[in-house]
Amino acid sequence: MTTTETVHDRIGTARDELTTGQLLAVFAFVAAATFALLFLQDPLAHDSMHNFRHAAGVICH
Amino acid sequence: MLVDYLERGVLAGAIAGIAYGVYMAIVANPLIGYMETLADGREHGGHAHGTGDHSHEAAEHAHAVSEATTAVVSVGSGVLWGILLGGVFALAFYFLEPALPGRGRLKTYVLAGAGFLTVSVAPWLVLPPATPGAELAFDPTVRSAIYVGMMVLGALVAAVSIYGYRRVSGGRGLLGVVTAAIPIVSLVAVTAVAAPTVVESGSTPTALVTAFRGLTVLSQAALWTLVAGSFGWLQARAGVRSATDRREDLLTSP
């Protein structure tokens, strides 16, 4: 790797290094994390983050 | 390599998140609590218990959980927020590192700036940070759609900005910086003129609203800076250097 790397090379490297199983695990985990975020819309969990949502500027009253 | 980047990103996010959690505990929690009581007080004094008042309902709604719980969960959320940003930052950095301008650790700050623009600044141009007791136009679904739409726009503007910089200057020079600033300034100018007023701060004193928004902007900027700084430090500690840097070193000092 003496020449300049490109974004394309990085995608290639990631593909070589990770197996299909690992990629599936990553995607499943991201899906689960998204699910958890949506689940937090539950009023109790949502309300208890109230101050944080104001402080981070992400609000929905 | 991807996994190593992610690992360092999560660690950098944890460092930044803990600092942000401390800020939540000692600054944001007491401040928001104070602003909440201020908004509640004015509400009761002014309208004399008007029936079906929206912001009144909102104020009641906010107290569905005890204040102590809110304070603790908010601090925890601050830490998790840092970890989330750190993880996403590292994944993006792994793929985009070759395309980012600057060399070495400067790249991390460029990406952090792009992230800050995407996640916070662009949405805030339409939906500025709301103070407790503020009146918000539209329903939450519409506002969420606006927020996400502005994030996409922010990412596009950041990409165009970086592309412009590389195209014009070949990676160096004042002209490049000016070119990079054009898309960002345009975004700010257009939203300043065209965006509808969504957040109505109501009875909260204007100076307090300004101070609150300033704190919000600065604290998020600090969070991103800390993520980039910690990540760069962890990369250097692990001895990671990009191929571009190694090549440039060979060319300059044989």
UniProtKB/TrEMBL annotation, chain A:
<feature type="transmembrane region" description="Helical">
    <location>
        <begin position="20"/>
        <end position="40"/>
    </location>
</feature>
<keyword id="KW-0472">Membrane</keyword>
<protein>
    <submittedName>
        <fullName>CbtB-domain containing protein</fullName>
    </submittedName>
</protein>
<dbReference type="InterPro" id="IPR012667">
    <property type="entry name" value="CbtB_put"/>
</dbReference>
<keyword id="KW-0812">Transmembrane</keyword>
<dbReference type="Pfam" id="PF09489">
    <property type="entry name" value="CbtB"/>
</dbReference>
<keyword id="KW-1133">Transmembrane helix</keyword>
TrEMBL record, chain B:
<feature type="transmembrane region" description="Helical">
    <location>
        <begin position="146"/>
        <end position="165"/>
    </location>
</feature>
<dbReference type="Pfam" id="PF09490">
    <property type="entry name" value="CbtA"/>
</dbReference>
<feature type="transmembrane region" description="Helical">
    <location>
        <begin position="211"/>
        <end position="234"/>
    </location>
</feature>
<protein>
    <submittedName>
        <fullName>CbtA family protein</fullName>
    </submittedName>
</protein>
<feature type="transmembrane region" description="Helical">
    <location>
        <begin position="78"/>
        <end position="96"/>
    </location>
</feature>
<feature type="transmembrane region" description="Helical">
    <location>
        <begin position="177"/>
        <end position="199"/>
    </location>
</feature>
<keyword id="KW-0472">Membrane</keyword>
<keyword id="KW-1133">Transmembrane helix</keyword>
<feature type="transmembrane region" description="Helical">
    <location>
        <begin position="108"/>
        <end position="126"/>
    </location>
</feature>
<feature type="transmembrane region" description="Helical">
    <location>
        <begin position="12"/>
        <end position="32"/>
    </location>
</feature>
<dbReference type="InterPro" id="IPR012666">
    <property type="entry name" value="CbtA_put"/>
</dbReference>
<keyword id="KW-0812">Transmembrane</keyword>
